[in-house]
Design goal:
Elements: E1 6-9, H1 13-24, E2 31-33, E3 38-40, E4 45-47, H2 50-58, E5 62-63, H3 71-76, E6 82-85, H4 94-97, E7 103-108, E8 116-117, H5 120-127, E9 131-137, E10 147-153, H6 161-185, E11 199-200, H7 216-225, E12 232-236, E13 239-249, E14 259-261, E15 265-268, E16 273-281, E17 287-288, H8 289-294
Parallel strand pairs: 1-2, 1-6, 2-5, 6-7, 8-11
Antiparallel strand pairs: 3-4, 7-9, 9-10, 12-13, 13-16, 14-15, 15-16, 16-17
């Protein structure tokens, strides 16, 4: 890794995991920028977000401005070679995009131009792939800038979001390191995105409740794309079941949305059903569906 300086911008769980992964490979930023702490829980106590907590563990300085694009904040920052953005949840305006000496970069967990936007992990899983990572140069569009490097990811059948995140965080530091080095020494030149774009819209609360009138394969992918958080769900005997992994099973019979306990747990769909392999009953820890079925009383 060549000598260079960069500032990392991130706020969510994926960004925190990426910081931890970068620390393991010693590709550390000189400074981290995140969003302000928010109230959480029933008492609405102000608590640090995932990235500030990661920074505390790693001993990294972190700034949490109310207005990240404020001219006063921008001029207060050191001038780095790069900025690196991932899972930040804020749009960077021209002042920040022009701050680095070499380039403002983004690590996006999809193969752009597929799944531009807020929920690329979930939407690519719902679509059944393809999966991958892209390092690109940011412009004022939403994930529209020229590509520096990409890497496709191959997953086992019926992966969850947790599975995809784990592989992304394993691969991302190497890809980022190659991108930074290649841009520093001039061996890499960003190229415009090609092909038809698809868009990863934010996950709405209504989507946590699967549409059981859809085919079993579609429902299973939907369940897995939301696991472990926020988690797809279904009501069973007045209690909430959070569904953490599913496989399509053609032989299941029942009214769409009907929960079937048969030594395991399944939910009927339009044509077959979703065989639930792991779930979390309301007020309890996650468990295998067979464990839930053993404790079930008709």
């Amino acid at each position: 890794m060549s000598e260079m300086r960069y500032i990392f911008f991130g706020s969510g769980d994926f960004a925190a995991g990426l910081l931890e992964a970068l620390a393991e490979t010693r590709i550390l930023p000189e400074l981290v920028v995140s969003t302000p702490d928010k109230p959480s829980g029933r008492g609405l106590k102000i608590v640090p977000g995932p990235v500030p907590r990661a920074c505390k563990r790693l001993g990294l300085p972190v700034l949490q401005p109310e207005k990240v694009n404020s001219p006063d904040f921008v001029v207060s920052l050191p001038v780095p070679d790069f900025i690196l953005v991932s899972d930040f949840g804020r749009i960077l305006k021209q002042g920040l995009l022009e701050l680095p000496k070499i380039a403002p970069l983004n690590l996006h967990p999809s193969l752009l131009p597929a799944w531009r936007g807020a929920a690329p992990l979930e939407r690519s899983l719902m679509a059944g792939g393809p999966y991958g990572l892209t390092v690109f140069v940011m412009d004022q569009g939403t994930d529209t800038g020229p590509i520096v490097l990409q890497e496709e990811i191959i997953l086992k059948p019926w992966p969850t979001k947790e599975d995809l995140v784990a592989v992304c965080l394993t691969r991302a530091p190497g890809l980022i390191g190659k991108a930074l080095d290649g841009l520093l020494d001039g061996s890499l030149k960003p190229v415009p995105q090609e092909g038809e774009a698809t868009y990863a819209l934010k996950i709405e609360k209504s989507e946590l409740w699967p549409d059981w009138d859809r085919p079993a394969e579609v429902v299973a992918r939907h369940i897995n794309a939301l696991s472990p958080r926020p988690g797809a769900r279904v009501m069973f005997r007045g209690k909430l079941l959070k569904l953490l992994h599913a496989l399509p099973e053609p032989g299941i019979r029942g009214e769409p949305g009907q929960v079937i306990v048969d030594g395991g747990v399944a939910v009927a769909c339009s044509g077959g059903g979703a065989r639930i392999t792991r779930l979390q009953p309301e007020g309890r820890n996650p468990m295998a569906s067979e464990e839930f079925a053993r404790g079930f009383r008709k």
